């Protein structure tokens, strides 16, 4: 009766051994460690994204951002970085969405507001940024380079080069290792035909940042016009390796190979470029590289036309030049190539009509060249800017014409002739855009005459 009874151990209790608990603890620890590594990897990727954006290496930035999103849930910071990339590349519809998502996710409201302001300024509407420029540089000093860049781009949109160059000087002094001031100064210098100085600035940008695709592209184009296709070819090859959509660089490679007499190689690159030339992403890359939007779709076809014309393959040349003229009908150089190809192909009547149009456009361009010379002497002249804008509007590019006319009003908001030109343009195109009728009324009131037209406009529903 006093015998001790030995307690039996259940089968469940047998499995709950110390070694079993250790196995579970190791598993939990492994999960925790993996989570820490994923978090650290995501944070590192976001840091690398920001660094790549700062050096204008946008393909690398997008690759790092994609990796960050793969490693973990999308954060407010990743949304904001996506918005900044979108703004830099001119994707303004996507920019608005990305920034709104960053705002909803709780990102810094001051940086959200600044990014909105920079996007507006970058497209040429400088009013708000210009009035707050000095204060922003003090209050958000860590964003000074971004603020300067947006202001300079806005000035360039309005051909306000003297103001842009002043900001570039300040920017370069404060950020001597930033390639962007040199690149943008190169663009301005090239525009005013100071090619030696532009060449030097592009090279400086590439020395600071060898992966600066835009500097490589623009230097390549400059060297092509200065009869140095061998070095231009190397720069275009570098640029092609840096762009997600390398069609602009492929066109440059084709142009360089043609200049070097390498017909087969030129045709190879140009045919590759022509295959994707109409994609919106390709047009976006052209704009980011500083090429006019209306010229982008025509470039590969124009070069292919010239290549076939050089080989006296007139029928093929007509085919490609006709595509280029359709894409960009106001480029007199394309029309001249088209006319020459038509004449070689025996289509003399069509060729004569094209040559007449070429002569009209060439005369207009000679007048613009003289106006550019006048503008060098008086950069603030609203009258000269208006004449340039009117010439562009009638003969070459509606977009460039509107930019020049608005730049005249930036220097003299009451300049009547600029308002008159804008009023006539918006009146003639009011069926194209619901806002154009109101714009026409506003400019007609400013130019202060032609009351009959004003009465007609005011009665427009």
Protein topology:
Elements: H1 11-15, H2 18-54, H3 58-71, H4 76-88, H5 92-104, H6 109-122, H7 127-139, H8 144-157, H9 161-174, H10 180-191, H11 195-208, H12 213-225, H13 229-240, H14 247-259, H15 263-275, H16 280-288, H17 293-296, H18 299-310, H19 314-327, H20 332-344, H21 348-377, H22 382-395, H23 398-411, H24 416-428, H25 436-447, H26 451-458
Structural class designation: mainly alpha
* SSE string, helices as H and strands as E: HHHHHHHHHHHHHHHHHHHHHHHHHH
The portion of residues forming beta strands comes to under 5%
Number of strands: 0
Q: Sum up the overall morphology in one term.
A: globular
Average pLDDT across residues? Answer: 85
- Specify the helix fraction band: over 70%
Q: Note the main sheet.
A: none
Rg on CA atoms, Å: 29 Å
Terminal CA distance reads 112 Å
Low-confidence stretches: 4-14, 450-461
The DSSP helix count reads 26
Structural overview:
This protein is an all-alpha fold and 461 residues long. It has 26 helices and no strands. It is globular.
Outline of the structure:
With 461 residues, the protein is an all-alpha fold. It has helices at 11-15, 18-54, 58-71, 76-88, 92-104, 109-122, 127-139, 144-157, 161-174, 180-191, 195-208, 213-225, 229-240, 247-259, 263-275, 280-288, 293-296, 299-310, 314-327, 332-344, 348-377, 382-395, 398-411, 416-428, 436-447, 451-458.
């Amino acid at each position: 009766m006093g015998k001790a009874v030995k307690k039996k151990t259940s089968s469940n209790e047998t499995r709950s051994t110390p070694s079993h608990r250790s196995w579970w603890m190791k598993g939990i620890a492994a999960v925790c460690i993996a989570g820490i590594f994923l978090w650290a990897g995501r944070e590192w990727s976001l840091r690398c994204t920001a660094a790549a954006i700062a050096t204008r290496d946008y393909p690398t930035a997008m690759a790092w951002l994609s990796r960050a999103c793969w490693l973990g849930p999308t954060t407010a910071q990743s949304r904001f970085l996506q918005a900044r990339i979108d703004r830099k590349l001119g994707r303004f519809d996507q920019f608005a969405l990305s920034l709104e998502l960053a705002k909803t996710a709780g990102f810094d409201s001051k940086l959200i507001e600044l990014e909105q302001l920079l996007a507006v300024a970058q497209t040429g509407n400088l009013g708000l940024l210009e009035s707050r420029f000095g204060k922003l540089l003090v209050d958000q000093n860590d964003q000074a380079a971004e603020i300067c860049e947006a202001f300079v781009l806005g000035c360039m949109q309005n051909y306000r080069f003297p103001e842009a160059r002043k900001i570039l000087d300040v920017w370069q002094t404060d950020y001597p290792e930033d390639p962007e001031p040199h690149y943008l100064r190169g663009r301005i210098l090239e525009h005013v035909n100071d090619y030696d100085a532009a060449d030097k600035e592009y090279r400086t940008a590439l020395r600071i940042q060898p992966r600066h695709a835009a500097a490589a592209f623009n230097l390549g184009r400059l060297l092509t016009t200065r009869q140095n296709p061998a070095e231009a070819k190397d720069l275009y090859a570098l640029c092609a390796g840096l762009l997600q959509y390398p069609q602009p660089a492929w066109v440059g490679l084709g142009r360089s190979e043609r200049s070097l007499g390498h017909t087969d190689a030129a045709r190879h690159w140009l045919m590759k470029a022509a295959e994707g030339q109409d994609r919106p992403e390709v047009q976006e890359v052209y704009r980011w590289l500083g090429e006019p939007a209306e010229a982008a779709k025509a470039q590969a076809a124009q070069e292919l036309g010239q290549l076939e014309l050089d080989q006296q393959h007139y029928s093929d040349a007509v085919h490609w030049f006709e595509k280029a003229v359709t894409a960009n009908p106001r480029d007199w150089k394309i029309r001249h190539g088209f006319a020459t190809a038509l004449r070689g192909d025996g289509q003399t009547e069509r060729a004569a009509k094209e040559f007449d149009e070429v002569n009209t456009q060439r005369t207009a361009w000679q007048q613009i060249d003289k106006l550019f010379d006048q503008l060098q002497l008086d950069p603030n002249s609203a009258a000269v800017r208006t004449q340039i804008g009117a010439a562009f509007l009638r003969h070459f590019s509606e977009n460039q014409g509107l930019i020049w006319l608005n730049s005249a009003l930036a220097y003299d908001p009451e300049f009547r002739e600029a308002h008159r030109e804008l009023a006539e343009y918006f009146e003639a195109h009011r069926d194209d855009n619901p806002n154009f009728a109101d714009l026409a009324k506003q400019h007609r009131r400013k130019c202060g005459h032609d009351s009959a037209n004003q009465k007609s406009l005011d009665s427009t529903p």
